[in-house]
Design goal:
This protein is an alpha+beta fold and 164 residues long. It has helices at 11-21, 39-50, 61-66, 106-112, 119-137, and strands at residues 29-33, 56-60, 77-81, 87-100, 146-157, 160-161.
């Protein structure tokens, strides 16, 4: 059974995924989203996910709290889209850790994969992104602000199951 809150542009892709994995019970739709906050970055990150370079993401806990959203949880299935909302793949969250921004490790930055996986690059681009996000929700960025470090696996893409 398909959840009624799946956006219409996502529904056919999600239904194909559910049919392909043939799990009992069927996977539950968590959300559809894109990485990044502008078209260039979003589409670059989507490509990194599709080629397997990016296998993790980091979110600002304050943003979830501001929207009264639940944080990601292991076992959740989400559809990753491009900037225009077109579905590209389904990911399954495999691990979630909440920690201060300053405690994110080189190992996690490598799994996230951007900028060659360096922690220095991770800190620069995430500080900039989190600063913009903090401004929108009335918070000041700080080294001890809590971030959600989410690891995931691509389980379905462009009409083809990728693992199982």
């Amino acid at each position: 059974m398909t959840s009624p809150d799946i956006p219409s542009i996502i529904r056919p892709f999600w239904d194909s995924f559910v049919a392909a994995v043939d799990l009992d019970p069927p996977p539950e739709f968590s959300e559809a989203f894109f990485f990044g906050d502008n078209e260039r970055v979003t589409n670059e990150l989507a490509e990194l996910v599709l080629i397997g370079t990016e296998r993790a993401t980091t979110s600002l806990l304050w943003a979830y709290e501001a929207d009264s959203d639940s944080i990601p949880r292991p076992g959740a299935f989400s559809v990753v889209t491009d900037w225009d909302g077109r579905p590209l793949c389904v990911i399954e969250t495999t691990q979630v850790d909440v920690m201060p921004y300053q405690d994110v490790t080189e190992e996690f930055a490598a799994v996230e994969g951007e900028g060659g996986g360096s922690l220095r690059h991770w800190r620069e681009v995430h500080w900039d992104a989190f600063s913009r996000e903090c401004a929108q929700i009335g918070k000041a960025p700080a080294p001890r602000m809590q971030v959600i470090c989410e690891r995931f696996e691509v389980v379905y893409r462009l009409g083809a199951r990728t693992s199982g």
